[in-house]
Amino acid sequence: LEDTIAQPVGTTLERYIMRTQSEFPYATGELSQLLRDIALAGKIVSREINRAGLAEVAGAFGQQNVQGEQQQKLDVVANIRFIRALTNGGQACAVLSEEEDEIVHTGNVQGKYVVAIDPLDGSSNIDVNVSIGTIFSIYRRVSPYGAPATEADFLQGGRRQVAAGYILYGSSTMLVYTTGHGVAGFTYESSLGEFFLSHPRMLIPETGSIFSCNEGNWHDYPEYVRDYLSRCKERRCSGRYVGSLVADYHRNLLVGGIYLYPPTQKNPDGKLRLLYESFPLAFVIEQAGGRAEAGPGLGRVMDLMPTHFHQRTPLFTGSYSLVDELLGMETT
Ligand code: AHM
Ligand code: MG
What we know:
By secondary structure, the protein is an alpha+beta fold. The chain has helices spanning 2-5, 13-20, 30-60, 74-89, 123-126, 151-154, 223-234, 245-255, 274-287, 320-327; strands spanning 92-97, 104-105, 113-121, 132-140, 161-169, 173-178, 183-189, 194-199, 210-212, 238-239, 258-261, 291-293, 315-318. Residues 98, 118, 121, 277 line the site of magnesium ion.
């Protein structure tokens, strides 16, 4: 931790990974390479996102991209970019993506890691030029090296994550990740093509005055959630909701607040996916001093045991005391 804080100004992600490699669970350099691969795909996706509006303009003039292909949807493009980077990097034997029903085998059967990823989250915001993000979670495989990855590699539970994080494509592009030794954030300098360490030791404020949820679902929320939100309003807290999980979560991580995706009548397990949304964000928030819970009586998100790939879970995450207060609400 001390080393992390002492990083000089101008530290690139590359240098940071090298300096902190000894903190990694197995410290052989493979996890470092995996993080580099994710960062590389993040840069490419960031570029695609920045050009998205322009491609529309070009399209309006009858142009196609250089390969003469029709423009693909950005979430499909992001899925291809991340899988390609993880395949070429060699360290991941398999990827589970929100965009795919089944495991994608990379062919790197000697790879020691598996990656669960939502390549581009916030689908409703993609077409309207509002912040979106990538969320990723990394496990060391439990299946034997040399053989294809199995379902069990991805269903180990949140506590077995060796690294997790997200990339936010916002007013700047940022990469935030943890390997279980605190959380560090990097801001992308596009003209240099580098992520620079901008947030060396991210800690979420213990409390805050922001609540983030889709209030359109008010009538479907359980009573304890409505009571909690009423309290927030009595205190004159601010409601802030982009509808992109990474953006809402990142804001609350920086300034303090709570993000809620409660169960609803339509989605009794909430909407968010456990393996590539809730687990990684729970790991990061706990490493930043915050909390991530599935609801009163349901326990820590990190303790949940998944039974299938695209499983959902309710999520209440953010500043410790705000989540604590929510869990203390009367549920009968
Ligand atoms: P997606 O995976 O289809 O993009 O959906 C996930 C998104 C999250 O980014 C966001 O927090 C949530 O869905 C918003 O849902 P809602 O529109 O119900 O508020
Ligand atoms: Mg998603």
